[in-house]
Amino acid sequence: LGGASILEGFALLYTGLCVGQRVVLVQKGRLYRARGYHITIWCNVSGYQGPLQQDFEWSIFLPSAPEQKMQIISTKDSTFPYAVYSQPVQNGEIYVERVQGDSVLLHIKELQDRDAGEYECHTPNTDERFFGSYSAKTNLSVISDTLSAAMPRQVLTRAEGDLLELTCEVSKSTAQHTHLSVAWYLLQGDSQAMTILSLSEDFILTPGSSYTERFLSDVRLDKVGDTTYKLSIGRVRPSDQGQIYCEAVEWIQDPDGTWKDIARKQTEKTLLTVRSQDRDFQATTAAVENSLAEGKPLRVDCSVNAQNSQNRWFQVVWLFKGVEVARIDPQGVWTLKKEYEERAVLGQLQVAKESNEMYILKVYQVGLKDKGMYSCQVSEMEKVSTGFSIIQTKMSSGIDVIVKPMESKMQVSVLSSKTPIVEGDPLILHCEVSGATSPLSVNWWHLRKSIIGMEQDGMLRPGLSYQERSTNRDLWLEKVNSTMFTLVIYNTSATSDGGSYKCEVTELDRNWKQAKETSVSVSPLSLDLRATLKSRTAAVKLTQDFELFCQASAPYRITQVPVSITWQFQHNLGANGYQQLVKVMPSGIEWGADLPHFQRKTSVTKTTSSSTLLIHSATEQDAGRYRCEVKVWRSSSQQTGHPAMAAA
């Protein structure tokens, strides 16, 4: 018994799973449909038993008799329709389309006001017992068709590349909330119309498959007023030729949330003929002046000769010696290579698009580096959704630009602090520059040997023959200011430092060189230095003033070198020899410490090579021997205290 009860339970459970509940669903209403259009209402059944192909019966409850069912059509019984619907059913004006065995569509080809009412979809029972729903109802309202779309019939001829604009007037006055969609179509021959561009009921623009690449760039649809929609084709092509028309569709949102087209209107057609044009073009390069002096302005033109050029896109690439230097895109935006971009920022260079036929390259102050061959490469471009693509490219012939070097206005002069000089003294030469317009480098030469040079950045480069003297700091080159360069050679030698000196200056931007020479004499210090002492009074009496005169002489011009004269005195009774009375140096006077009484009564004067000693009121203490000692100094030896030469 226990086992039987368990099996019976499974059988009941199995039976419960298999037995379904019939459910009939009809399209949710209320539905609003426009008069005069083909409409459909769907109905399906589920959860049924019996054959997979179920039958359907459609009836209507008219607003004038809401309790009276009027039978329209059945998939099972041809005698089902009432008399008023028999003829429309027989004529195919009303029919049922079977979508699946358990799903159908009721079709009404041309909706009329009499078709408004409550529709019932009924499925005859095929189940073992009645279980579930066997019918469902929906309401249909018939509304007026207020949609209007208008465009005048016209015949147009356009040249290839011309602009085409067409307008479509679309309006509606439906009481219910509805949306509009607008589309433009092209009809060519007997083929199916192609979509050019459409604006959907949810405001999405979509190009036809043949116009995807031209969408937005060349083909546009704009709403320019409350009811006006404008199609623009920026550059028509032969493929655009044919009949163009506009179609407007009115859409309403059904209770199930879906949007349904309820009205549709097409305009008259515009017949468009597109004349093909010669797509060829020529690119030419020309210069206002192709032979010009350095520093003058240069203008090179790239001209494009093409039919209907104002409606075509061109890209121009400037080439200098075959290398790209600048580019102007179809929209006139220019880009430059790095070196030329820097020059453009400094206002030295410009590229520009004057028109669709003329492109210019300007160099405001041409330099030697700008001479050479200029040319331009012109590409016709097509605007596509991703930007531009090249249709064809042409290269111009080149033009050779000749730049004649500018004559240098730079002047160089060399000045010496003093000449001649005595060996051992420093040689100082000044190199002065005028008229230079760019940074300078300087080189000093002596008898064709490089002494020392200075680069633009101030770096010094001693010559090979002067390396040791530079290391010993006997050689120096100083940039005093932007135009003055001073050379100093210390401890000069009469045998090696005399002769011709040259200052060579280079203007770096143009590599211009100017040089100036000067001759320097370095006098040797001769051993034949003499001192002569004279007295203006032969016999001196007590209390009388007396004067002594000392004159230095040498084979060279002694006035060009520093000279010191020392006056010495030896008393008649003294045994200590000569003592310093006074020393007259180039830098001043030094009185002797051992003979102080002379300082109170003696005056001394000196010229470059002589000295006078005047002693007032002679006394017996002044009697004795007087002597003068002459010493010649180098400029550098004054600091060390060692004279170059002495004589007494």
Task: Summarize the model shown.
The protein is mainly beta. The protein has six helices and 51 strands.
Give a description of the structure.
The protein has 648 residues and is mainly β. The chain folds into five domains: 22-143, Sandwich (Immunoglobulin-like), CATH 2.60.40; 147-275, Immunoglobulins (Immunoglobulin-like, Sandwich); 281-404, Immunoglobulins (Immunoglobulin-like, Sandwich), CATH 2.60.40; 411-523, Immunoglobulins (Immunoglobulin-like, Sandwich), CATH 2.60.40; 530-632, Immunoglobulins (Immunoglobulin-like, Sandwich), CATH 2.60.40.10. The chain is built from six helices and 51 strands. The strands form eleven sheets. Strands 11, 13, 14, 15, 18, 19 and 20 form a seven-stranded mixed beta sheet that branches. Strands 22, 24, 25, 26, 29, 30 and 31 form a seven-stranded mixed beta sheet that branches. β14 (194-199) and β15 form a beta hairpin. The protein is rod-shaped, with a radius of gyration of 59 Å.
Write the layout of secondary structure elements.
Layout: H1 2-18, E1 23-26, E2 31-34, E3 39-46, E4 57-61, E5 69-74, H2 83-90, E6 94-100, E7 103-108, E8 117-122, E9 135-143, E10 148-150, E11 154-159, E12 164-171, E13 178-187, E14 194-199, E15 205-207, E16 219-223, E17 228-233, E18 242-253, E19 259-266, E20 270-275, E21 281-287, E22 291-293, E23 298-306, E24 313-320, E25 323-328, E26 334-336, H3 338-345, E27 349-353, E28 358-363, E29 372-384, E30 387-395, E31 399-404, E32 411-416, E33 421-422, E34 427-434, E35 440-446, E36 449-454, E37 460-462, H4 467-471, E38 475-481, E39 484-489, E40 499-507, E41 512-520, E42 522-523, E43 530-535, E44 546-553, E45 563-571, E46 579-585, E47 588-591, H5 596-601, E48 602-606, E49 610-615, E50 624-632, H6 637-640, E51 645-647
Parallel strand pairs: 2-9, 11-20, 22-31, 33-42
Antiparallel strand pairs: 1-3, 3-7, 4-5, 4-8, 6-7, 8-9, 10-12, 12-17, 13-14, 13-18, 14-15, 16-17, 18-19, 18-20, 21-23, 23-28, 24-25, 24-29, 25-26, 27-28, 29-30, 29-31, 32-34, 34-39, 35-36, 35-40, 36-37, 38-39, 40-41, 43-44, 44-49, 45-46, 45-50, 46-47, 48-49, 50-51
